[in-house]
Amino acid sequence: MLDTGRIIEDRGIRDRLGVFEDRTDAGRQLAAILSPLETIGDAVVCAIPAGGVPPGLEVARALKAPLRMAVVRKVQIPWNPEAGFGAVTWDGRVFLNRALMAGLDLSEAEVNAAVAKAKKNVEERIQKFAGGRQGPGLSGRTAILIDDGLATGYTMLAAVEAARAESPRQVVVAVPTGSLHAVNFIAEKADLVVCPNIRTSRIFAVAQAYERWHDITDQEVEELLIQARDMGLF
Length: 234
Fold this sequence. Notes:
Layout: E1 2-3, E2 7-9, H1 23-34, E3 43-47, H2 53-63, E4 67-69, E5 73-77, E6 80-88, E7 94-96, H3 98-104, H4 108-130, E8 142-146, H5 154-164, E9 170-174, E10 177-179, H6 180-187, E11 192-194, E12 197-199, H7 218-230
Parallel strand pairs: 2-11, 3-4, 3-8, 8-9, 9-11, 10-12
Antiparallel strand pairs: 1-2, 5-6, 6-7
């Protein structure tokens, strides 16, 4: 394990693929790293749905910390919905990647439509997963933001900024896998980044860190949240 002060990684699995069975296994490995840290007391686990919910539940269980939905959606590029040029957060903030936008030659109408679609999706997911409620406050506490991986880091950047607006004591980002570029980028914004599987390859896909990978459905998220409620975590 390597702790640089702002980044904790497992050098034994750097650049390796298929190091986690699935997101739940990845969450348990994150929890094993986070649990001994004395600096993360009074934590709120903020899982980014959908992929961040399985690892988030495992971390919340291990830390006996409340679980909260940190709904963030990328602002999709019209002709490539898998990619985004910004993000919308649970508090309605909009973050746009101006440098990327400059190269996309998007019209104002296209930008506005994409932002409106992302905002609507955020509102729908907050209602669906959290019944419209925000969850436990972050003021004076440790916010642990969890997703299943960091590719560019831009969505997580938006989550960090939204969490900061609630005046937490510190913001910790915990992800099972991430590109070196994204981890370094987020480490400049968060107080600590925990990412056991950092990969330095120029081509990066979150899914490659997992032996079993599928897109998490809304139904799976709801079932996991029922488990969290049964454990008194949500």
